[in-house]
Design brief:
With about 220 residues, this protein is of the alpha/beta class. It is built from eight helices and eleven strands.
Amino acid sequence: MRLLYVEDDPRIAQPVVGALTEAGYDVTWRETGEAGLREAIGGDYPLIVLDVMLPDLDGFELARRAREAGEGGAVLFLTARDTLPDRVRGLDLGGDAYLTKPFELPELLATLRALARRGAAARSSSLTFAGGRGTLDTVGRAVRWDGREVTVTGREYHLLETLVHAPGRWFTREELIDRVWGPDFAGEARIVDVYVRYLRRKLANEAVESERGRGWRVT
């Protein structure tokens, strides 16, 4: 499951990202509120984990703006601000759960599992794209085009899933490398172009749109 994590302190973030990744989450980590908000809007993250005390835009304001923009992912606040008014404010602004620092990783993981179960019950596992010609089954990790099942590799599926989860949003080459290949990828950046060609051959040219200077998207 894709998860957005916004935390400005690397000493806290790095072990959390490691634990979440080991637990099977596809983690995108951002270090400022503004960067987190840009990622959250249109990113279609089922889970969003926010520090509250960020250096620019605090977590409460980030959550408020994301909700106003229509983002429906479950929001978990992680913060040292543990007063009752803070907890009430966080929940009123669209938060779904609230953990205070310091916290234990097993408690964090258990809370996220509970939020994921709650969200899974409300979401369909089937996503359509390209005007309904394409279907992505996020539970069975299956792809269909014009009603026929198409065999894709794990990397091709991950790339397509990233695009389908944010229909209409343009992704740059750098963003796709970060999400699909990971921030430590040291290979050729045009690997994205290669995998888009693979998908177009298996589906259709119109399955993934491209535009110079903007990147790629599905609709």
